[in-house]
């Protein structure tokens, strides 16, 4: 697991956007796994601005979102489909027909889950899977005790997640208790996993993910077993790590190595 510690949240977004841009420049028809929540918003803003400047294009991209509330219609303003349209898809040159979000209003959610898995496989798998992390260590809606080999399925939300997300719903408004989420096994098949976290409230989850045992109690800890995961955090989210300086040192070494490779001075 590569852990990159940046000064603040805008720097986290810039670092993440750089990786997406490189992927798009290398492979315009990339497949992206995308996430909702507050954390990815600045990254999406960076990518929108890059698209407007003509540096990148999403015209050949296909995307699969991690999760969706069950029992919310796609047009409901708090659905993750509506979030993605509003915050990202409507502001870039992606063909919305190529943007997939699990269907929270499917007549048969169980069939919809296996169809979602099949669609990811038919697209050739996910090149970059973007993730946030819950305060309880969830990724997607894979809450603590989730099977680490799970596939896309219906998942019950914990009280903590419902409370964390209550701010988006009006008082007295129906708030879903169930979701459809990619499983941890599904996420683990992405070629690159990029997890972003900012703020003090994520510090414990980041410590558990990076240093703790691989455990269903911290679903994100499964990423310790993924061969290509980059965790990009700000100082606050990194503040409970035992040895943040080590990760900063590794990053300096990595950047120096990259510079040598780019200037072709690396001894072959
Ligand atoms: P947040 O959510 O980005 O709004 O903190 C992250 C998550 O719950 O996965």
From TrEMBL:
Molecular-function GO term, any one: glucosamine-6-phosphate deaminase activity
UniProt note on regulation of activity: Allosterically activated by N-acetylglucosamine 6-phosphate (GlcNAc6P).
Domain spans labelled Glucosamine/galactosamine-6-phosphate isomerase: 12-226
Site (Part of the allosteric site) residue list: 146, 153, 155-156
Reactions accelerated catalytically: alpha-D-glucosamine 6-phosphate + H2O = beta-D-fructose 6-phosphate + NH4(+)
Record-listed E.C. numbers: 3.5.99.6
Catalytic residues as annotated in Swiss-Prot or TrEMBL: 67, 136, 138, 143
Membrane-crossing residue ranges in chain numbering: none
Keywords: Allosteric enzyme, Carbohydrate metabolism, Hydrolase
UniProt key word Hydrolase: yes
EC class name: hydrolase
Listed CDD domains: GlcN6P_deaminase
Pfam families given in the database record: Glucosamine_iso
InterPro entries per UniProt: Glc/Gal-6P_isomerase, Glucosamine6P_isomerase, Glucosamine6P_isomerase_CS, NagB/RpiA_transferase-like
Pathway entry: Amino-sugar metabolism; N-acetylneuraminate degradation; D-fructose 6-phosphate from N-acetylneuraminate: step 5/5
PROSITE patterns associated with the record: GLC_GALNAC_ISOMERASE
Role, per record: Catalyzes the reversible isomerization-deamination of glucosamine 6-phosphate (GlcN6P) to form fructose 6-phosphate (Fru6P) and ammonium ion.
Quaternary data: Homohexamer.
Family to which this protein belongs: Belongs to the glucosamine/galactosamine-6-phosphate isomerase family. NagB subfamily.
HAMAP family per the UniProt record, alphabetical: GlcN6P_deamin
Name of the protein in its database record: Glucosamine-6-phosphate deaminase
Species assigned in the record: Candidatus Seongchinamella marina
Lineage: Bacteria, Pseudomonadati, Pseudomonadota, Gammaproteobacteria, Cellvibrionales
């Amino acid at each position: 697991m590569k852990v990159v510690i940046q000064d603040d949240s805008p720097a986290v977004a810039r670092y993440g956007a750089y990786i997406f841009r490189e992927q798009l420049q290398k492979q315009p028809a990339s497949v992206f796994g995308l996430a909702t929540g507050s954390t990815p918003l600045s990254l999406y803003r960076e990518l929108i601005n890059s698209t407007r400047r003509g540096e990148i294009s999403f015209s050949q991209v296909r995307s699969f979102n991690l999760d969706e509330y069950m029992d919310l219609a796609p047009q409901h303003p708090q659905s993750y489909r509506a979030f993605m349209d509003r915050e990202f898809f409507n502001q870039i040159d992606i063909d919305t027909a190529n943007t997939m979000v699990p269907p929270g209003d499917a007549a048969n959610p169980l069939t919809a889950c296996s169809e979602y898995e099949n669609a990811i496989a038919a697209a050739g798998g996910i090149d970059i899977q973007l993730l946030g992390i819950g305060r309880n260590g969830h990724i997607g809606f894979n809450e603590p005790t989730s099977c680490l080999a799970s596939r896309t399925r219906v998942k019950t939300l914990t009280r903590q997640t419902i409370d964390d997300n209550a701010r988006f719903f009006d008082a007295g408004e129906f708030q879903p208790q169930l979701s459809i989420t990619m499983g941890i096994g599904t996420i683990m098949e992405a070629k690159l996993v990029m997890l972003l976290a900012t703020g003090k409230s994520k510090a414990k989850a980041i410590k558990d993910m990076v240093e703790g045992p691989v455990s269903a109690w911290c679903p994100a800890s499964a990423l310790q077993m993924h061969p290509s995961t980059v965790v990009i955090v700000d100082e606050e989210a990194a503040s409970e790590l035992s040895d943040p300086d080590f990760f900063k040192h590794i990053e300096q070494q990595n950047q120096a190595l990259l510079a040598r490779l780019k200037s072709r001075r690396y001894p072959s």
